[in-house]
Amino acid sequence: MSAVRVGDVPIPIVNYIYLIKYRKSPYYDIVQHILKEMETHYKKTGRSSEIIYTINPRVLQEEIERKVKSEKITTVNICRTILALLYGSKLREEDDFYVTTTSGGRKNYHIKINAHTLSSMSRFV
């Protein structure tokens, strides 16, 4: 496993990176779901284009809760799992993904899906 330096990634996110790497449920299940959805959308648009895939953590939480029964599935855990996937895949903020905040303080994650980002995320998992 490649080492993640604490200085590059916030400490709580480093913990989630390890949970994903060691395939701990529900964190690994969340990542698998996200990757499957991204690949499906990317295939639909054609592999030559780049698309922006937006993740709303509350909507994702509802989808995951239908598949996986766990008290650990919270919006905070989903947000941290998404960030762990992005940082663990060594994607660059602004170049490969960006985060927006609604007026109510909720975050949405926008990932530029192309061959590079998909392969980086697949290698991480």
Please outline what is shown here.
The protein is of the alpha+beta class and 125 residues long.
Largest sheet: 3 strands, antiparallel
Strand order, biggest sheet? 1-3-2
Helix-strand topology string: HHEHHEEH
Spatial extent as radius of gyration: 14 Å
Mean pLDDT: 90
Helix/strand/pairing class, anyone?
alpha+beta
The rounded distance between the terminal residues' Cα atoms is 11 Å
Query: Strand-residue fraction?
Result: 5-15%
Helix fraction bin: 40-55%
> Which segments are poorly predicted (pLDDT under 50) over 5 or more consecutive residues?
none
Q: Got a strand count?
A: 3
Structure report:
By secondary structure, the protein is an alpha+beta fold. The chain is built from five helices and three strands. The protein has helices at 11-21, 27-45, 57-67, 75-88, 115-124; strands at residues 51-55, 97-101, 107-113. The chain has a three-stranded antiparallel beta sheet. β2 (97-101) and β3 (107-113) form a beta hairpin. α1 (11-21) packs across α4. The chain is globular and about 40 Å long. The chain starts with 10 loop residues before the first helix and ends with a helix. 27% of the residues are buried. The mean pLDDT is 90.
What is the topological layout?
Elements: H1 11-21, H2 27-45, E1 51-55, H3 57-67, H4 75-88, E2 97-101, E3 107-113, H5 115-124
Antiparallel strand pairs: 1-3, 2-3
Helix pairs in contact: 1-4, 3-4
Which short descriptors sum up this protein?
about 120 residues; alpha+beta; 5 helices; about 50% helix; about 15% strand
